[in-house]
Q: What sequence folds into this?
């Protein structure tokens, strides 16, 4: 297969970026999107050895790690959609057979104020880490693993928690949202612990702290577009956002009562 690629090139967060055009052929329909980019980079390296190149002739920088849909590193905006045209897959799992031979493919980084561009297609997603640091944990004494059946968990709750825990932190929900909202990610992270007995003691403090961190990082609010759920490679449900909002309201009211009853 052959393709024309229009790829966003940007030297660093301070420089102005632009699209650069590349032609590539001899791509197997069974290649993944990242393997296709590997082939392009190999070509750019080979061509660069024989003739002088400007910045856009250097290999394209893009993030990746597991290439198995697990780590969430490989987010690319492909033809106007986070992770490209396939449903329920990450960019590393997207295959070139999903495109037509001769297609022009436009590749951009995630676009969000909270995700500044580091270089080309790589963005700084450390805002997600800040949200996790604010409350995405439970406080327990470490030591030997406890007996697995010491805290029974109803199966329906375990399944809900596992569904939420399948979020890989890729940031596609932010890229898809017209408001750059990260509420699907935060909702999933809040829910996966709130459903389990181990996560309940800190549930109120957690939801308040994570929402505060979310606001401080500059993400927008949910506007019910549902684009996040549609584009999420793990099909995380927007019902987690609804649960998070309910938990936040409950936590705020209870906190308010505590303040009134303590007279402070
Ligand atoms: S909710 Fe989905 S799109 Fe958002 S970070 Fe998690 S896996 Fe990625
Ligand atoms: S490289 Fe890990 S999810 Fe794509």
A:
């Amino acid at each position: 297969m052959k393709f024309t690629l229009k790829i966003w090139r940007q030297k660093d967060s301070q420089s102005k970026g632009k699209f650069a055009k590349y032609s590539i052929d001899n791509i197997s329909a069974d290649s993944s999107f990242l393997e296709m980019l590997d082939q392009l980079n190999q070509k750019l390296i080979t061509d660069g050895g024989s003739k002088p190149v400007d910045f856009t002739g250097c290999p394209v920088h893009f993030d990746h790690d597991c290439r198995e849909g697990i780590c969430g590193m490989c987010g690319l905006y492909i033809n106007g959609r986070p992770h490209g045209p396939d449903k329920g897959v990450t960019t590393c799992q997207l295959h070139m057979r999903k495109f037509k031979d001769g297609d022009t493919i436009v590749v951009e980084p995630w676009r969000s104020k909270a995700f500044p561009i580091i270089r080309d297609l790589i963005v700084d997603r450390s805002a997600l880490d800040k949200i996790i640091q604010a409350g995405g944990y439970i406080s327990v004494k470490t030591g030997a693993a406890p007996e697995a059946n010491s805290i029974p968990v109803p199966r329906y709750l375990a399944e809900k928690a596992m569904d939420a825990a399948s979020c890989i932190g890729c940031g596609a929900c932010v890229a898809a949202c017209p408001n750059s909202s990260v509420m699907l990610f935060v909702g999933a992270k809040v829910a996966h612990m709130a459903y389990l007995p181990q996560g309940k003691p800190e549930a109120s403090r957690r939801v308040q702290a994570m929402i505060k961190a979310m606001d401080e990082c500059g993400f927008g609010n949910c506007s019910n577009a549902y684009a996040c759920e549609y584009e999420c490679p793990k099909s995380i449900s927007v019902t987690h956002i609804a649960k998070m909002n309910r938990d936040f309201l409950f936590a705020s009211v209870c906190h308010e009562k505590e303040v009134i009853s303590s007279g402070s």
Summary: Strands lie at 3-9, 18-24, 77-78, 81-82, 104-108, 117-119, 122-123. Residues 239-261 form the longest helix (23 residues). The chain has two domains: 3-118, 126-261.
